[in-house]
Amino acid sequence: MTETSVSTHILDTSVGRPAEGVPVELSVRKGIDDLWAPHGVSKTDADGRCKDLPALPEGTTHVRLDFAVEQYFSGFTSTSSTSTAISAEAQQDAPRVRDSGAFFPEVAITFAVEPGEHYHVPLLLNPFGYSVYRGS
Prior knowledge:
The protein has 136 residues and is mainly beta. The chain is built from 2 helices and 10 strands.
């Protein structure tokens, strides 16, 4: 029987580049009523990928990936410029990066798994939103 495995990567859509250095925690459970058990940790590499997450234990039915993105975004700050073509009214309504760096400081993705499958779960991320999907 083939091992059940998980991989992920993060693309920062606000800059069109991989998100490097984001801590990722993998947790598992065996049934919807079971408690989550930590199973592995990683950090995204220069390509935004986690390639070293461990195979899932036999009997795993659900997986949770916790992405700690606040520190990644803490390096981004809002800037203002008087030489912009955008009106002051439009700037007033535009979202700005918070001092903490991100509106969503953590992203938790939970999904169901079947034995013997590989699950690649990409995270498309920006300071004000995110999207995920089952990749290949």
